[in-house]
Design goal:
By secondary structure, the chain is mainly beta. Helix content is about 5%, strand content about 30%. The strands form 2 sheets. The protein has a 7-stranded mixed β-barrel. Strands 1-2 form a two-stranded antiparallel ribbon. The longest helix has 6 residues, at about 75-80.
């Protein structure tokens, strides 16, 4: 199936690649189907592209490249909703907010996207933990 994307023009996707957000994303409740598209093979960043709306796309990345000790407990409702049976099925992503430079860009650590990679069910959750909504990308990478 072909979809039109915000950043990559028209791309061919497989139905098995479609990620299902049962209740959509906060602020985009009608958008329930997305696909992950790599920006490039070596990039840690990907595009979370709406299947339905070409203009709706988010840049996402695993949080661990930004903050190595990022962790939280999934509550039972999320585990049930995503039908998670083991930790190996879980992938976590955060949404990147691009600014004028990469150093000024931020990630939302407060509201990660949790994906069950086995069944392609996902949910954006809001954490009780004390993580920032706008955590700067460049904060931990200045060593070495």
């Amino acid at each position: 199936m072909k979809i039109t994307t915000a950043y990559m023009g028209e791309v061919e996707i497989k139905l098995s690649q479609i990620i299902q957000f049962e209740h959509g994303l906060p602020g985009f409740e009608d958008e329930k189907e997305f696909v992950q598209l790599p920006i490039s093979e070596e990039s840690a960043y990907q595009v979370l592209q709406s299947v339905k709306t070409a203009a709706l796309a988010f840049i996402i990345t695993p949080p661990y490249a930004t903050i190595s000790d990022y962790s939280f407990e999934l509550d039972e409702a999320v585990i049930r909703a995503l039908d998670i049976k083991s930790d190996n099925e879980v992938a976590v992503f955060v949404i990147v907010s691009l600014k004028d430079t990469l150093e000024n860009s931020t990630v939302n650590l407060k509201a990660p996207i949790v994906l069950n990679i086995e069944n392609q069910k996902a949910k954006q959750i809001i954490l009780d933990e004390d993580y920032a909504i706008r955590h700067r990308l460049a904060t931990e990478k200045k060593e070495g």
